[in-house]
Amino acid sequence: MFSRFPPVAIPIRQVSHPHTALRTAARLKGNPLRFSRIQEPLRTVRSTPAKRHFHSTSAAMTDPSKTKSESEWRAILSPEQFRILREKGTERAGTGKYDKFYEEGVYTCAGCGTPLYKSTTKFNSGCGWPAFFDAIPGAVQRHEDRSFGMTRIEITCAACGGHLGHVFKGEGFPTPTDERHCVNSVSLNFVEDKDKKN
Ligand SMILES: [Zn+2]
């Protein structure tokens, strides 16, 4: 069993981790692994049925007051935020500003500002993206994602439908849920909990 918290997450890469799959997809296209080079091929790969599936499920359950048209989102989001939140992109491993960030507070949706995760549920998974073992109740929706030839659980902001990342279960982390919400830093904004400071 684990003697320390958090554990070193060596086994994660050995199962069909999403980002391993991304690199595989890029490699098949004959591209180097540099993230800037693999954006276009990935967009091509993820264009068809999975994308329709995403949109049909997430759009039906969002809060109309928090949703916007594509052009409205483009106007308020940075290009990187738009690529990840609205086009279901992924930031490069280990580059996100909240990957190794452990201040006390709340993480809100970078698209609509809805509180999504508390810092008390954040843990170090070692995988290169912010990891949480649970979301604020009702804040996050789950959708089956069959892109890249595997079945994963995509998570989106329940209010605006923005893409957050994926949830992985049963990996053996010693957390209360044994779930890992693998979330892009770009999809989040941290709000410090000032009440807990002196
Ligand atoms: Zn949102």
Automatic annotation (TrEMBL):
The protein, known as: Uncharacterized protein
